[in-house]
């Protein structure tokens, strides 16, 4: 199911990919890879609230992943919630202080 979902995603058949990953999520509730793929598909579909919800579940599974934390910051920033975006970008910076995107965002935040 995982590789079928990735194949559908690569072929830009997003609905079928989401179905595969949701079925797999029902089987493997705490799989970080599956949760990330579901969140990524929701982000592609521009359903940012669902993507944020999946990423928050993913953070409960892998709380120290700086990429996921920065993605949460980016999504909250796109939604206009600067305080939540700041929180997640700071957490991402704490675990991986060499990410230039995060440093740029934090610098712009402090300048504002």
TrEMBL record:
Cross-referenced InterPro entries: TPR-like_helical_dom_sf, TPR_rpt
TPR repeats: 32-65, 66-99
GO CC annotation terms, alphabetical: centriole; ciliary basal body; ciliary base; non-motile cilium
A molecular function GO annotation: kinesin binding
Metal-binding is among the record's keywords: no
Keywords: Cell projection, Cilium, Flagellum, TPR repeat
Record-level GO BP terms: inner ear receptor cell stereocilium organization; intraciliary transport; kidney development; non-motile cilium assembly
Protein name: Intraflagellar transport protein 88
């Amino acid at each position: 199911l995982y590789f079928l979902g990735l194949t559908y995603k690569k072929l830009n058949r997003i609905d079928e990919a989401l179905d595969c990953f949701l079925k797999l999520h029902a089987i493997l509730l705490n799989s970080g890879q599956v949760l990330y793929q579901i969140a990524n598909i929701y982000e592609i579909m521009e359903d940012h609230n669902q993507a944020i919800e999946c990423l928050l579940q993913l953070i409960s599974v892998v709380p120290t992943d700086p990429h996921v934390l920065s993605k949460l910051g980016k999504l909250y920033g796109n939604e206009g919630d600067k305080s939540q975006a700041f929180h997640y970008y700071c957490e991402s910076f704490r675990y991986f202080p060499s990410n230039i995107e995060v440093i740029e965002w934090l610098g712009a935040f402090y300048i504002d």
